[in-house]
Specification:
The structure holds two protein chains of two kinds.
Chain A (H helix, E strand, L loop, with lengths): L2 H7 L17 H13 L3 E6 L2 H5 L12 E4 L4 H14 L6 E7 H6 L2 H9 L5 E6 L36 H6 L5 E6 L3 H12 L5 E6 L3 H4 L6 H10 L6 E4 L3 E4 L8 H6 L9 H22 L2
Parallel strand pairs in A: 1-2, 1-3, 3-4, 4-6, 5-6
Antiparallel strand pairs in A: 5-7, 7-8
Helix pairs in contact in A: 2-8, 4-6
Chain B lengths: L1 E5 H11 L4 E4 L6 H12 L6 E4 L3 H13 L4 E6 H6 L1 H9 L5 E6 L13 H4 L7 E4 L3 H18 L3 E6 L7 E5 L3 H7 L16 E2 L5 H33 L6 E4 L6 E5 L3 H14 L4 E6 L1 E3 L3 H8 L4 E6 L9 H10 L9 E6 L9 H12 L10 E2 L5
Parallel strand pairs in B: 2-3, 2-4, 4-5, 5-7, 6-7, 11-12, 11-14, 14-15, 15-16
Antiparallel strand pairs in B: 1-8, 6-13, 10-12
Helix pairs in contact in B: 1-2, 1-7, 3-5, 7-9
Classes of the chains: A alpha/beta, B alpha/beta.
Chain lengths: 296, 387
């Protein structure tokens, strides 16, 4: 997509200030900036413990120009339920409520509350920015950490031997009106999905891949490139699901091999060619399943 | 309007009269009737609240926290394990200065499974920064529930209304239910000074460094101190409207008493009966009921008990390795009295896990209370325990 088209598709107004506390090249910071652009100023964000608890800035500062409520680790979806209920009780049906959580707060500790809220079809947008480990506490494995990755709790030969949890499928299985994946590497796709989510009522779930240079052991200026490679190697396909049933692939990936994507990140440095082959097979198998689902 | 209702429904009626705007709740015995009745009230339109049927008590409190932060009047109810599950968020509600009201039915904690009453669930939340109000009868439950919202919103602290499992929760008593319009005159709509508002965007609960955290804690502590005056004002106003006043503590026949029994919850009613009976027999007995446990009414208790020779504290709870918790708190509160005015405080652990505390048990304690305690015995006596 050309620069002109991008400029036209992404709102100009900024709801995130400079001076935030993200690391250089942080995918999560860019994700927030883009999502808020798409949602506009009538938005309330609730934030369980995650990197963003720090990025947002210490009291009395805030890097966001929208109301922000810091909440406990496992309560993104439940706190958002309460905020929305209060707005409704006071006759405000317009303001968008967003729960903004990392992968730990979504895949792990917050999953129960999220499942409860999704089952009740609570009217908010839940955004999981996924940097694939507990990055804020210093790179520990989560159930979003991919097979093969090094983290501080999966060191040496004990690299993660378990597969990444398929969170989108879990959310889709709740039959929520809208669930989608996106990445900061494709801002037009991301913004379009956020706008679509905003136009729908009920629980909407966005799974955003947010590369993390310190945690992935990648270069600060490689965040966008890695996001693109994740999509085109089919490691992280861009999809959306309506009502838990209608699956659509929103960007046809080139089908590049996973090797170059993995080799570009220090967290996969230890992998043998054979292990890279194992990951390729996993990715291919998942892609076949997704393709079947999307073609129904 | 007088109605015969159980304690649980007295809570529901109080919440209805207070016009709670958001209710988030999860079932647990023996609290469930509270939220069932509220579900009925919401379903048939008697209460215009958003009712969130959450998947756990933890989420119930989180939803109340979110709702309260967004400016609504929020309520939940729980018991025992449910309250324990909420523990993390009880701190969050108080340090977040959110005026949530919670009703807890005092139920013993497991294992072994018990659904019967004791106070260890709420007393384990002693240091979470919640006001705690223990009730003795269903009228008090209804009044306190309504008043709790006003108190919470006045001082920006959450308030726990506490009642005994079954002895109150499932016991029917006649309750005078005030007219909605009268309560509206007493308690208006909540107007939060600060809230999540897109027209006034602020961040709440951000990273708080050592140079400011302590001051936030101090503000919380000051708010706790403000509770006494606020409560007193609320009660005076309530008395003017409805003719009833319960007090942070209640003193009963203490004037010339040689022995004062200190109680909370439904044990109080039994004790009042025993005090009357003993008075008839010429024994100079009195009673102090502690309704407000947090903030601890130290000054009121010093005034009520200074110069009393002997105090017997009845604790339906235990801090393992130490003593009954009301006794422990009372000893600390009275310690600064001059020695000649300082009562001897004897602690008695009774009624754990719903064991009956009968007049016989109390009379045994009264007998023990006037006997000299074995020298060097600092521990509470457990009464009504099988040998």
């Amino acid at each position: 997509m050309s620069q002109t088209l991008l400029r036209n598709s992404i709102p100009q107004a900024e709801l995130m200030e400079s001076g935030h506390l993200a690391c250089p090249g942080c995918g999560a910071a860019l994700a927030m900036r883009l999502v808020l652009k798409a949602l506009g100023e009538k938005t309330i964000v609730t934030l369980p413990a995650c990197c963003w608890s720090i990025i947002a800035g210490p009291w009395p500062q805030s890097s966001l120009k929208v109301p922000l409520f810091h909440t406990a680790f496992e309560t993104g979806a439940s706190a958002a339920s309460g905020i929305k209920a209060a707005l409704q009780a006071r006759g405000d049906d317009e303001t968008t409520v967003v729960a903004w959580a990392g992968d730990g707060g979504t895949f792990d500790i917050g999953l129960q509350a999220l499942s409860g809220a999704a089952e009740r079809n609570e009217d908010f947008i839940y955004v999981c920015y996924d940097n694939e480990a507990y990055m804020n506490t210093g790179i520990q494995r989560s159930s979003a950490t991919p097979f093969g990755a090094w983290t501080t709790t999966t060191p040496g030969d004990a690299w993660k031997h378990d597969k990444k949890k398929d969170i989108l499928q879990i959310l889709a299985a709740h039959g929520i009106p809208y669930a989608a994946t996106a990445t900061v590497a494709y801002p037009d796709d991301l913004v379009a999905k956020v706008k679509k989510a905003k136009s729908i009522r009920g629980t909407r779930f966005l799974h955003l891949l947010a590369p993390c240079p310190p945690g992935w052991k990648s270069a600060d200026d490689d965040t966008i490139q890695l996001g693109r490679m994740a999509v085109h190697s089919r490691v992280f396909p861009l999809v959306e699901v309506e009502n838990g049933q209608d699956w659509r692939i929103t960007m046809e990936p080139d089908g590049d091999p996973v090797g170059p994507y993995l080799r570009r990140q220090g967290r996969f440095r230890h992998l043998s060619e054979e292990q890279v082959g194992t990951i390729q097979a996993q990715v291919d198998a998942r892609w076949e399943v997704l393709k079947r689902r999307a073609s129904r | 309007m007088k109605k015969v209702i159980v304690g649980n429904h007295a809570v529901s009626w109080g919440v209805k009269l207070a016009r709670a705007e958001v209710v988030a709740a999860y079932p647990i015995t023996p609290q469930t009737q509270i939220v069932e009745e509220l579900a009925e009230m919401c379903a048939d339109g008697r209460l215009a609240a958003r009712y969130i049927k959450v998947e756990s008590e933890h989420s119930a409190m989180a939803a109340c926290i979110g709702a309260s932060a967004a400016g609504a009047r929020a309520f939940t109810a729980t018991s025992s394990q449910g309250l324990l599950l909420m523990h993390e968020l009880l701190h969050w509600a108080s340090l977040g200065r959110l005026p949530i009201v919670l009703a807890d039915i005092n139920r013993a904690v497991a294992p072994g499974w018990s659904i019967w009453t004791d106070q260890n669930d709420t007393l384990a939340q002693r240091d979470t920064g919640w006001v705690q109000l223990y009730c003795e009868n269903n009228q008090e439950v209804l009044d306190t529930t309504v008043q709790a919202f006003q108190l919470a919103e006045k001082v920006n602290l959450p308030v726990m209304v506490v009642l005994d499992a079954f002895f109150l929760s499932h016991t029917s008593e006649p309750v005078d239910i005030p007219e909605a319009a009268e309560v509206d005159a007493f308690l208006g709509r909540r107007e939060a000074e600060l809230k999540l508002d897109v027209n006034d965007p602020r961040a709440f609960g951000a990273l708080t460094r050592p140079d400011v955290y302590m001051e936030m804690r101090l503000r919380q502590q000051e708010a706790m101190r403000d509770v006494f005056a606020a409560w007193s004002g609320i009660e005076a106003n309530w008395e003017k409207h409805f003719g009833r006043r319960w007090g942070a503590i209640e003193t009963y026949r203490t004037d010339d008493a040689e022995l004062v029994l200190v109680t909370s919850g439904t044990i109080t009613s039994t004790t009042r009966y025993v005090v009357d009976r003993q008075r008839e027999a010429g024994r100079r007995l009195g009673l102090v009921k502690v309704k407000m446990f947090r903030p601890f009414p130290t000054e009121l208790l010093r005034r009520a008990l200074a110069g009393v020779p002997r105090v017997a504290v009845l604790d339906r709870n235990i801090s393992p390795g130490h003593s009954g918790i009301f006794a422990e708190e009372l000893r600390a509160a009275l310690y600064d009295l001059p020695e000649e005015r300082r009562p001897r405080v004897d602690g008695y652990v009774v009624g754990l896990g719903g064991r009956d505390v009968t007049p016989d048990v109390l009379e045994e304690i009264i007998g023990l209370g006037s006997a000299p305690k074995p020298a060097g015995d600092p521990e509470d006596l457990w009464v009504g325990v099988k040998s």
